[in-house]
Amino acid sequence: MSAQSNEATKGGLLLAIETSCDETSVAVVRGGREVLSNVVSSQIDTHRQFGGVVPEIASRKHVESITIIIEEAVREAGIRLEDIDAVAVTQGPGLIGALLVGVVAAKSLALALDVPLIGTHHIAGHIYANRLIGEILYPSLALVVSGGHTEIVLLEAEGKFRIIGRTRDDAVGEAYDKVARALKFPYPGGPHVDKLAQEATEEIVLPRSWLEPDSYDFSFSGLKSAVLAEINRSRMKGESPDFSALARGFQQSVIDVVTGKAIRAAKEFGARQMMLCGGVAANRGLRERLAALCEEADLPLLIPPHNLCTDNAAMIAAAADLKWRHGQFSSLDLKAEAVMSLEDWSV
Fold first, then answer.
1. Alpha carbons within 13 A on the beta-carbon side of 312
2. Positive or negative, the Cα torsion across 312, 40, 36, 105?
3. 208, HSE (Cβ side, Cα atoms, 13 Å)
4. pLDDT confidence of 8, banded at 50, 70, 90?
5. CA 341 and chain centroid, separation
6. What's the rounded Cα separation, in Å, for the pair 317 and 178?
7. What is the pTM of this model?
8. Other beta carbons within 10 Å of 239
9. Does residue 328 contact residue 116 with C-beta atoms inside 8 Å?
């Protein structure tokens, strides 16, 4: 075994870069768990005027910010660039132009420092954000709910991903944003819908899309259409739509389906632990309901704090540490991938 392979098995000091969408983030993490810095520059204010992320603008903002954010992360971590053992970067999935900015920056840094490069899967990052707050027990089940992804992922062993359920149309985050626009909320609308649902005293009951009896897949396009139909029905009667009751009905439908399927999957596959991951994991209603169901099932639950649910580079470092310890590095011809298989990324 080479000296580099010996070193790889011990963990290391990783600098990670995340630019998959509209956050420019750089983190320095030791051993896959000790976060020395995690700097995030959000573009929300820029994209809010357009009602959503504009890919070309996101890419340009990453170009403007990436060098500054790298310098800030290194300074905050109290290290020198020469101390870095490897550079990790989100390879995909994501917006291709945004990903390219991070990939080019990571390649340049790895080449300049003569250290390994680790292309990392974005969803693996969301899942292993949980390792930054606690031990992961295997087999473990991850419920991934984000702007672009809704999946149930079984981890039979460390770094071994198996998708057992996924959305067939809108992801949860997409559905929240579309419903939020219908309810006249600004981008990003998810937190506004969550807050309104929590405050509501009435609920307009909306359909639950369970699909086939044995399926762990999801579908939210019909639910979004049901919300729009309720709004149109009220206006045709000359009434003002009850937005708070609609928000509560929408949120309860989403939560019932995603948590119900996750708990059923955990029982079927003998999971020792549940993990909640992704940007929508910051949703208060979802967190509270899943926590209650896991307590009833005597199933340990890990949920990252809000700052580790949304896109950040510390989670990318946590996932990249799996590859580092196995000596699985990327070549400098690494390509950004707008669509990328999580299962194929397994260690």
1. 27
2. positive
3. 15
4. very low
5. 15
6. 32
7. 0.91
8. 9
9. no
- Predicted confidence (pLDDT) per residue in 191-240, tens digit: 899 999 999 999 999 999 999 999 999 999 889 899 999 999 999 999 88
pLDDT at 170 over 90: no
Q: What b/e sequence results for 265-300 when a residue is b if at least 16 CB atoms lie within 10 Å of its CB, and e otherwise?
A: bbeebebebbbbbbbbbbbebbbebbeebbeeeebb
Beta bridge partners of 10: none
Please list, in sequence order, all residues whose beta carbon lies within 8 angstroms of the beta carbon of residue 260, skipping any fewer than 6 positions away. Answer: 210
Measured CA to CA in angstroms, residue 163 lies from 155, 156, 195, 315 at distances of 9, 11, 31, 19
The Cα–Cα gap between 181 and 266 comes to 34
Q: Which amino acid is at 280?
A: V
Q: Is 159 left (phi over 0), alpha (psi -120 to 50) or beta?
A: left
> Element (H or E) spanning 155, and its range?
strand 150-157
| For the chain, the helix, strand and coil percentages under 3-state DSSP, each to the nearest 5 | 50, 20, 35
Q: Tell me the CA distances in angstroms from 170 to 146, 176, 223, 239, one per residue in order.
A: 11, 10, 10, 29
Quick one: which H or E segment has residue 140? strand 140-145
How many residues are recorded in the chain?
347
d(CA 324, CA 117): 9
**Three-class SS state of 153:** strand
Q: How far apart are CA 111 and CA 278, in angstroms?
A: 31
